[in-house]
Amino acid sequence: MSMPSGLSAFPITPADADGRVDLAALGRIIDRLVAAQVGSIGVLGSTGIYMYLSRDERRRAVEAAQDRCGAIPLVVGIGALRTDEAIGLAQDARAMGAAAGLLSAVSYAPLSQDEVYEHFSAVAKASGLPICIYDNPGTTHFSFSPDLVARLSRVPGVVGIKNPPPPDGQMAHHLARQRSATSPGFSIGYSGDWCCPEAMIAGADTWYSVLGGIFPRICVALSRAAQAGDTVQARRLDAALAPVWEVFRSHSSLRAVYEIARQIGLTTAEPPRPILPLGAEGRRDIAQMLRSLPPEICG
Prior knowledge:
Layout: E1 6-9, H1 23-36, E2 40-43, H2 55-69, E3 74-77, H3 83-95, E4 100-104, H4 113-127, E5 131-134, H5 137-140, H6 146-152, E6 158-163, H7 171-181, E7 187-190, H8 196-202, E8 206-209, H9 216-227, H10 231-240, H11 242-251, H12 253-263, H13 280-292
Parallel strand pairs: 1-2, 1-8, 2-3, 3-4, 4-5, 5-6, 6-7, 7-8
Protein backbone atom coordinates (compact mmCIF):
# COMPACT_ATOMS: atom_id res chain seq x y z
CA MET A 1 0.00 0.00 0.00
CA SER A 2 1.41 3.38 -0.98
CA MET A 3 0.20 6.83 -1.91
CA PRO A 4 0.33 8.02 -5.52
CA SER A 5 3.18 10.44 -6.14
CA GLY A 6 3.55 13.59 -8.24
CA LEU A 7 0.65 15.96 -8.77
CA SER A 8 -2.55 15.10 -6.91
CA ALA A 9 -5.19 17.38 -8.43
CA PHE A 10 -8.08 18.44 -6.18
CA PRO A 11 -11.09 19.83 -8.06
CA ILE A 12 -14.19 21.55 -6.75
CA THR A 13 -17.38 19.50 -6.44
CA PRO A 14 -20.05 21.54 -8.23
CA ALA A 15 -23.37 21.26 -6.39
CA ASP A 16 -26.65 23.14 -6.24
CA ALA A 17 -28.06 25.08 -3.29
CA ASP A 18 -29.56 21.87 -1.87
CA GLY A 19 -26.20 20.09 -1.88
CA ARG A 20 -26.92 17.86 -4.87
CA VAL A 21 -23.79 17.26 -6.95
CA ASP A 22 -23.85 18.38 -10.58
CA LEU A 23 -22.41 15.24 -12.13
CA ALA A 24 -22.16 16.70 -15.64
CA ALA A 25 -20.06 19.65 -14.44
CA LEU A 26 -17.94 17.39 -12.23
CA GLY A 27 -17.38 15.14 -15.25
CA ARG A 28 -16.14 18.06 -17.35
CA ILE A 29 -13.65 18.98 -14.66
CA ILE A 30 -12.46 15.39 -14.15
CA ASP A 31 -12.00 14.97 -17.91
CA ARG A 32 -9.51 17.87 -17.92
CA LEU A 33 -7.47 16.16 -15.22
CA VAL A 34 -7.48 12.84 -17.03
CA ALA A 35 -6.41 14.49 -20.29
CA ALA A 36 -3.49 16.15 -18.48
CA GLN A 37 -2.45 12.80 -16.96
CA VAL A 38 -2.22 14.01 -13.38
CA GLY A 39 -0.61 11.65 -10.89
CA SER A 40 -3.85 11.22 -8.96
CA ILE A 41 -7.24 12.87 -8.59
CA GLY A 42 -8.38 13.98 -5.15
CA VAL A 43 -12.14 14.25 -4.83
CA LEU A 44 -13.95 15.54 -1.75
CA GLY A 45 -11.05 17.47 -0.33
CA SER A 46 -11.61 20.82 1.37
CA THR A 47 -11.96 22.50 -2.03
CA GLY A 48 -14.24 19.58 -2.91
CA ILE A 49 -16.58 20.67 -0.04
CA TYR A 50 -16.62 17.21 1.58
CA MET A 51 -18.02 18.47 4.89
CA TYR A 52 -20.97 20.13 3.14
CA LEU A 53 -22.23 17.01 1.39
CA SER A 54 -24.36 14.12 2.61
CA ARG A 55 -23.03 10.57 2.52
CA ASP A 56 -25.24 9.82 -0.49
CA GLU A 57 -23.92 12.83 -2.41
CA ARG A 58 -20.36 11.90 -1.53
CA ARG A 59 -21.02 8.46 -2.98
CA ARG A 60 -22.44 9.97 -6.18
CA ALA A 61 -19.38 12.20 -6.58
CA VAL A 62 -16.90 9.37 -6.00
CA GLU A 63 -18.73 7.02 -8.36
CA ALA A 64 -18.85 9.67 -11.10
CA ALA A 65 -15.14 10.44 -10.70
CA GLN A 66 -14.16 6.78 -10.64
CA ASP A 67 -16.13 6.15 -13.83
CA ARG A 68 -14.00 8.75 -15.63
CA CYS A 69 -10.55 8.53 -14.10
CA GLY A 70 -9.51 5.30 -15.80
CA ALA A 71 -6.10 4.16 -14.56
CA ILE A 72 -5.45 7.38 -12.63
CA PRO A 73 -5.64 6.68 -8.87
CA LEU A 74 -8.50 8.30 -6.97
CA VAL A 75 -7.93 9.77 -3.50
CA VAL A 76 -11.15 10.42 -1.57
CA GLY A 77 -11.81 12.73 1.36
CA ILE A 78 -13.36 10.69 4.19
CA GLY A 79 -13.35 13.16 7.08
CA ALA A 80 -16.28 13.16 9.52
CA LEU A 81 -17.02 14.23 13.07
CA ARG A 82 -17.60 10.69 14.34
CA THR A 83 -15.21 7.77 13.99
CA ASP A 84 -17.98 5.40 12.91
CA GLU A 85 -19.03 7.83 10.17
CA ALA A 86 -15.45 8.14 8.91
CA ILE A 87 -15.19 4.34 8.84
CA GLY A 88 -18.38 4.15 6.77
CA LEU A 89 -17.10 6.76 4.32
CA ALA A 90 -13.78 4.94 4.02
CA GLN A 91 -15.60 1.67 3.36
CA ASP A 92 -17.69 3.39 0.68
CA ALA A 93 -14.55 4.74 -0.99
CA ARG A 94 -12.82 1.37 -0.89
CA ALA A 95 -15.87 -0.39 -2.35
CA MET A 96 -15.87 2.07 -5.26
CA GLY A 97 -12.22 1.45 -6.05
CA ALA A 98 -10.47 4.41 -4.40
CA ALA A 99 -6.71 4.13 -4.04
CA ALA A 100 -6.61 5.94 -0.69
CA GLY A 101 -8.65 7.99 1.76
CA LEU A 102 -7.73 11.47 2.92
CA LEU A 103 -8.64 11.74 6.60
CA SER A 104 -8.71 14.97 8.59
CA ALA A 105 -9.16 15.46 12.33
CA VAL A 106 -12.57 17.13 12.07
CA SER A 107 -14.13 18.01 15.39
CA TYR A 108 -16.46 20.28 17.33
CA ALA A 109 -14.90 19.61 20.73
CA PRO A 110 -11.12 20.09 20.66
CA LEU A 111 -9.31 16.77 20.27
CA SER A 112 -6.18 15.54 22.02
CA GLN A 113 -3.25 13.96 20.21
CA ASP A 114 -4.20 10.56 21.68
CA GLU A 115 -7.82 10.89 20.54
CA VAL A 116 -6.71 11.59 16.98
CA TYR A 117 -4.31 8.64 17.11
CA GLU A 118 -7.14 6.33 18.13
CA HIS A 119 -9.46 7.83 15.49
CA PHE A 120 -7.01 7.23 12.65
CA SER A 121 -6.06 3.78 13.90
CA ALA A 122 -9.71 2.72 14.06
CA VAL A 123 -10.51 3.98 10.55
CA ALA A 124 -7.44 2.32 9.03
CA LYS A 125 -8.13 -0.99 10.76
CA ALA A 126 -11.86 -1.17 10.10
CA SER A 127 -11.90 0.05 6.51
CA GLY A 128 -8.89 -1.61 4.91
CA LEU A 129 -8.44 1.56 2.84
CA PRO A 130 -4.94 3.12 2.76
CA ILE A 131 -5.18 6.33 4.78
CA CYS A 132 -3.41 9.63 4.17
CA ILE A 133 -3.24 12.04 7.11
CA TYR A 134 -4.77 15.40 6.24
CA ASP A 135 -3.16 18.01 8.48
CA ASN A 136 -5.24 21.13 7.88
CA PRO A 137 -5.12 23.25 11.05
CA GLY A 138 -6.49 26.35 9.34
CA THR A 139 -9.80 24.52 8.93
CA THR A 140 -9.87 21.87 11.66
CA HIS A 141 -8.00 23.87 14.35
CA PHE A 142 -6.02 20.73 15.15
CA SER A 143 -2.29 20.41 14.45
CA PHE A 144 -0.58 17.05 14.21
CA SER A 145 2.51 17.09 16.40
CA PRO A 146 5.72 15.59 14.99
CA ASP A 147 5.39 12.78 17.53
CA LEU A 148 1.83 12.01 16.44
CA VAL A 149 2.80 11.90 12.77
CA ALA A 150 5.66 9.53 13.62
CA ARG A 151 3.33 7.28 15.66
CA LEU A 152 0.69 7.19 12.95
CA SER A 153 3.26 6.41 10.26
CA ARG A 154 3.74 3.08 12.03
CA VAL A 155 0.04 2.20 12.10
CA PRO A 156 -0.76 -0.44 9.46
CA GLY A 157 -2.71 1.22 6.68
CA VAL A 158 -1.64 4.81 7.41
CA VAL A 159 0.57 5.44 4.41
CA GLY A 160 1.19 9.17 4.02
CA ILE A 161 0.55 12.76 5.01
CA LYS A 162 -0.72 15.90 3.32
CA ASN A 163 1.09 18.67 5.18
CA PRO A 164 0.29 22.36 5.34
CA PRO A 165 3.20 24.71 4.61
CA PRO A 166 5.53 24.82 7.63
CA PRO A 167 5.15 28.05 9.62
CA ASP A 168 8.76 29.04 9.04
CA GLY A 169 8.54 28.35 5.31
CA GLN A 170 11.58 26.07 5.46
CA MET A 171 10.29 23.28 3.24
CA ALA A 172 13.53 21.34 2.88
CA HIS A 173 14.18 21.38 6.64
CA HIS A 174 10.61 20.33 7.49
CA LEU A 175 10.68 17.54 4.90
CA ALA A 176 14.01 16.17 6.09
CA ARG A 177 12.93 16.23 9.72
CA GLN A 178 9.63 14.47 8.97
CA ARG A 179 11.32 11.95 6.70
CA SER A 180 13.77 10.98 9.42
CA ALA A 181 11.00 10.53 12.02
CA THR A 182 8.50 8.48 9.99
CA SER A 183 8.55 4.88 8.86
CA PRO A 184 10.31 3.86 5.61
CA GLY A 185 8.13 4.33 2.56
CA PHE A 186 5.79 6.78 4.29
CA SER A 187 4.64 9.30 1.67
CA ILE A 188 5.20 12.98 2.48
CA GLY A 189 3.35 15.64 0.53
CA TYR A 190 2.27 19.26 0.87
CA SER A 191 -0.61 21.58 0.13
CA GLY A 192 -0.69 25.38 0.02
CA ASP A 193 -0.08 25.70 -3.71
CA TRP A 194 2.26 28.69 -3.70
CA CYS A 195 4.68 26.82 -1.40
CA CYS A 196 4.54 23.41 -3.07
CA PRO A 197 6.96 23.92 -5.98
CA GLU A 198 9.78 24.36 -3.48
CA ALA A 199 8.56 21.32 -1.56
CA MET A 200 8.72 19.22 -4.73
CA ILE A 201 12.17 20.57 -5.54
CA ALA A 202 13.23 19.57 -2.02
CA GLY A 203 12.07 16.00 -2.65
CA ALA A 204 8.48 15.79 -1.44
CA ASP A 205 6.56 12.84 -2.84
CA THR A 206 3.29 14.58 -3.67
CA TRP A 207 1.90 18.03 -4.43
CA TYR A 208 -1.75 18.15 -3.27
CA SER A 209 -2.97 20.94 -5.52
CA VAL A 210 -6.10 23.08 -5.71
CA LEU A 211 -4.77 24.75 -8.86
CA GLY A 212 -4.06 21.33 -10.35
CA GLY A 213 -7.80 20.69 -10.13
CA ILE A 214 -8.56 23.56 -12.52
CA PHE A 215 -5.31 24.17 -14.52
CA PRO A 216 -3.76 20.71 -14.52
CA ARG A 217 -1.34 20.92 -17.46
CA ILE A 218 1.05 23.50 -16.05
CA CYS A 219 0.91 21.90 -12.61
CA VAL A 220 1.79 18.50 -14.10
CA ALA A 221 4.69 20.09 -16.02
CA LEU A 222 5.95 21.86 -12.90
CA SER A 223 5.69 18.75 -10.75
CA ARG A 224 7.50 16.60 -13.32
CA ALA A 225 10.27 19.16 -13.76
CA ALA A 226 10.84 19.29 -10.01
CA GLN A 227 10.87 15.51 -9.69
CA ALA A 228 13.34 15.27 -12.57
CA GLY A 229 15.70 17.70 -10.83
CA ASP A 230 15.13 20.48 -13.37
CA THR A 231 14.89 23.25 -10.81
CA VAL A 232 15.33 26.00 -13.41
CA GLN A 233 12.24 24.89 -15.33
CA ALA A 234 10.24 24.25 -12.17
CA ARG A 235 10.95 27.72 -10.84
CA ARG A 236 10.26 29.29 -14.25
CA LEU A 237 6.81 27.71 -14.30
CA ASP A 238 6.24 28.68 -10.67
CA ALA A 239 7.11 32.30 -11.49
CA ALA A 240 4.55 32.26 -14.32
CA LEU A 241 1.91 31.33 -11.75
CA ALA A 242 2.66 34.28 -9.44
CA PRO A 243 -0.62 36.08 -10.38
CA VAL A 244 -2.57 32.97 -9.40
CA TRP A 245 -0.79 32.64 -6.06
CA GLU A 246 -1.61 36.28 -5.35
CA VAL A 247 -5.37 35.83 -5.83
CA PHE A 248 -5.27 32.59 -3.83
CA ARG A 249 -3.66 34.41 -0.92
CA SER A 250 -5.95 37.43 -1.23
CA HIS A 251 -9.29 35.68 -1.67
CA SER A 252 -8.71 32.09 -0.45
CA SER A 253 -8.08 29.32 -2.92
CA LEU A 254 -11.56 27.83 -2.48
CA ARG A 255 -13.44 31.01 -3.36
CA ALA A 256 -10.95 31.91 -6.09
CA VAL A 257 -11.13 28.53 -7.82
CA TYR A 258 -14.93 28.62 -7.90
CA GLU A 259 -14.76 31.97 -9.65
CA ILE A 260 -12.07 30.74 -12.04
CA ALA A 261 -14.26 27.76 -12.93
CA ARG A 262 -17.17 30.10 -13.59
CA GLN A 263 -15.16 32.52 -15.72
CA ILE A 264 -13.65 29.80 -17.92
CA GLY A 265 -17.05 28.19 -18.42
CA LEU A 266 -16.76 24.93 -16.50
CA THR A 267 -19.65 25.48 -14.11
CA THR A 268 -21.93 28.16 -12.68
CA ALA A 269 -21.99 26.46 -9.26
CA GLU A 270 -21.31 28.59 -6.20
CA PRO A 271 -19.63 27.55 -2.95
CA PRO A 272 -21.99 25.99 -0.39
CA ARG A 273 -23.62 28.42 2.01
CA PRO A 274 -22.72 30.00 4.31
CA ILE A 275 -19.60 30.48 2.13
CA LEU A 276 -20.30 33.34 -0.24
CA PRO A 277 -18.93 33.66 -3.76
CA LEU A 278 -16.49 36.46 -4.46
CA GLY A 279 -17.90 39.96 -4.76
CA ALA A 280 -17.31 42.44 -7.55
CA GLU A 281 -13.73 43.26 -6.53
CA GLY A 282 -12.75 39.61 -6.32
CA ARG A 283 -14.36 38.83 -9.66
CA ARG A 284 -12.41 41.68 -11.25
CA ASP A 285 -9.18 40.40 -9.69
CA ILE A 286 -9.82 36.94 -11.12
CA ALA A 287 -10.64 38.33 -14.57
CA GLN A 288 -7.47 40.44 -14.56
CA MET A 289 -5.42 37.46 -13.43
CA LEU A 290 -6.81 35.26 -16.21
CA ARG A 291 -6.05 37.91 -18.83
CA SER A 292 -2.45 38.11 -17.61
CA LEU A 293 -1.75 34.39 -17.99
CA PRO A 294 -0.33 32.82 -21.14
CA PRO A 295 -2.99 30.68 -22.87
CA GLU A 296 -1.08 27.46 -22.25
CA ILE A 297 -1.48 27.87 -18.48
CA CYS A 298 -5.26 27.77 -18.60
CA GLY A 299 -5.55 24.36 -20.24
